[in-house]
Write a structure and sequence with these properties.
The complex is a heterodimer of chains A (142) and B (422). Chain A is of the alpha+beta class and 142 residues long. In chain A, 47% of the residues lie in helices and 13% in strands. Chain B folds into two domains: 159 residues, Aspartate Aminotransferase, domain 1; 257 residues, Aspartate Aminotransferase, domain 2 (3-Layer(aba) Sandwich). In chain B, helix 3 packs antiparallel against helix 11, helix 4 crosses helix 11 and helix 5 packs parallel to helix 6. Classes of the chains: A alpha+beta (142), B alpha/beta (422). At the A-B interface, helix 2 and helix 3 of A face helix 13 of B.
């Protein structure tokens, strides 16, 4: 079982192979297309992380001490970035999720997608993911 | 090959003989790269770029005459006041108002609408009364009226919009009744580009003694504003959309209304005298300009008006219409484009969707190619979401300094978006 930091490093390494933006985005688009669709029952306002530009739906479930995230978006690039976040954070212990620094986003040159200006729901989604983790961890991890 | 060369040379000069390349030299920001590509700035409806004359007017102000306006007895204050008031006179002439008493400096269109909604709307609206706006309002000409109506238990009604993005005028006429106390409509739609028949709206409203406000934020960059011709009662626009700086705007209002209206902001500058017991308000237009004003902004706006006068609205319209036609043609050729807003009378704004592509994804790829467009609701969420049932559009908006080559770049960008995403 890989740690969050290990997965982050792995992703940064994968992206270092791409030498232009098109390759990077083509990979993210591919990830977005392959992300398992969230169950339709979760695609309601209750699970919606509202963004102005794109919508994100998020569900979290505890299984054997680990948080499992499922998410979706109507924009494919947002969805591809979600796929990366899920790869890093899903199936990890809540404590570890709450403490994750998520530096890989910067390393792979996708930081701009987290800017509030984008209003694509991604930053809010990360906040929600971390809030779930804090709620489930039941202790002060900060 | 030769015909390509000829075509390219011909493209350099528009049909009007206006030399856009020479003009571009006045806009230093356009001469830069974004993600390694020369920037193609097609987000002019959000804000347009500033010519050197405007940029210099602001730095000159700070270098030479910076001082607080009005009331100062020293020379610098007098010079600053003169420059500030000269800008007001330029605005008066720009909108063809009778008197500078009718020209109020605001922070932008949003403040202009808020000022009218609070200072005027509050005093004329009673329970059960009605205010009319349209379905295509920018949030800034919708939310203030929504809040006002809620507070007054009044009803906010919307002039419907047809599929092409035009106001349905016979529906509007049916909406007029004795309860309607105010109409506020957008002159040119920021998300669809539609130029609305505001003169007709005002004529109908005035037959029933209903005052009309125009949100001219998107009109002022493209059309000559003439408050006497349209006979509007209130009109607001923003400096930053007419080549001027941000943080400055204009509210024009007929003197007869301004005299009766109470200020909604108070403090320094807007007073004639103050005692511990009471305040006598200043004369028009200062009554509505509490606090130290945006002096540099006003001076910059004055310089922007000089710039527009030098270019001339005839050239602006001719150049922008040519770009609009060219964009419609090129985007049409790209295929799989759905245009949102196909009104007969349009400003140089193209809102569209690429079949099978989310606007956010398209905007992201175009940005990587150095092309700046806007995606999303464009601050008209009810129009895009409720009226058109969309999650957003891609909007390219053109200004006088844009070129056909830039539209070619947009078309190439769209082809790349399709290749990557469809």
């Amino acid at each position: 079982m890989q740690t969050i930091a290990e997965i982050e490093d792995q992703i940064a390494e994968e992206f270092s192979l791409f030498d232009d933006w098109m390759d990077k985005y083509e990979y993210i688009i591919e990830l977005g297309k392959n992300l398992p669709l969230i169950d339709e029952k979760y695609k309601t306002d209750e699970y919606k992380v509202k963004g102005c530009q794109s919508q994100v739906w998020l569900n979290a479930e505890m299984k054997e001490g680990k948080l499992i995230y499922k998410a979706d978006s109507d924009a494919i690039i947002t969805k591809g970035l979600i796929a990366l976040l899920i790869r890093v954070l899903s199936n990890q212990k809540p404590e570890d999720i709450a403490n994750a620094k998520l530096e890989f986003i910067n390393k792979i040159g996708m930081k701009e997608h987290l800017s509030p200006n984008r209003s694509n729901g991604l930053m809010s989604m990360i906040n929600y993911m971390k809030n779930y983790a804090l709620t489930y961890s039941g202790e002060n991890v900060r | 090959m030769q015909s390509d060369v000829i075509e390219n040379i011909a493209k350099r000069k528009s049909q009007t003989g206006f030399d856009v390349y020479k003009l571009r030299d006045e806009f230093p920001i356009l001469n830069q790269k974004v993600h390694g590509n020369p920037v193609v700035y097609l987000d002019n409806a959000a804000t347009n770029q500033k010519p050197l004359s405007v940029i210099n007017s602001i730095s000159d102000y700070y270098k030479t005459i910076n001082s607080n306006v009005h009331r100062g007895v020293h020379s610098l204050s007098e010079k600053a006041t003169e420059a500030y008031e000269a800008a007001r006179e330029k605005v008066r002439e720009f909108v063809n108002a009778d008197s500078i008493k009718e020209i109020i400096f605001t922070s932008g269109t949003t403040e202009g609408v808020n000022l009218v909604a609070y200072s005027f709307g509050e005093s004329i609206l009673n329970e059960g009364d009605e205010v009319i706006v349209s379905q295509m309002e920018h949030h800034s000409n919708l939310v203030p009226w929504q809040i006002l109506c809620e507070k007054k238990n009044a009803v906010l009604k919307y002039i419907p919009v047809n599929d092409a993005g035009e106001l349905i005028m016979n529906e509007f006429e049916k909406m007029i009744n004795d309860k309607v106390k105010m109409i506020s409509v957008v002159y040119v739609s920021n998300s669809l580009g539609t130029i609305n028949p505001v003169k007709e709206i005002i004529e109908i409203a005035h037959k029933h003694n209903i005052p009309v406000m125009l949100d001219a934020a998107q009109a002022a960059p493209h059309l000559k504003i003439d408050v006497k011709y349209s006979d509007c009662d209130f009109l607001a626009f923003s400096g930053h959309k007419v080549f001027g700086p941000t943080g400055i705007g204009i509210l024009y209002a007929k003197e007869k209304f301004l005299e009766k209206m109470l200020p909604y902001k108070s403090g320094g500058e807007m007073i004639k005298s103050v005692t511990y017991n009471e305040t006598v308000f200043n004369d028009l237009p200062y009554k509505f300009e509490a606090g130290t004003p945006n002096i540099e902004g006003a001076i910059g706006l004055g310089a922007a008006i000089d710039f527009i006068k030098r270019i001339g609205y005839e050239n602006i319209s001719a150049q922008e219409n040519e770009l609009l036609d060219y964009a419609n043609e090129k985007l049409g050729e790209a295929g799989g484009i759905r245009f949102i807003g196909t009104a007969k009378n349009k400003a140089s704004v193209v809102s569209f969707l690429i079949e099978g592509v989310h606007p956010y994804d398209a905007g992201t790829i175009l940005d990587q190619m150095g092309i700046a467009v806007r995606t999303g609701f464009h601050c008209t969420q009810p129009l895009i979401e409720q009226r058109y049932k969309l999650t957003g559009t891609i909007r390219a908006s053109f200004s006088i300094y844009n070129t056909k080559e830039e539209i070619d770049r947009l078309a190439e960008g769209i082809l790349k978006v399709k290749k990557m995403l469809v």
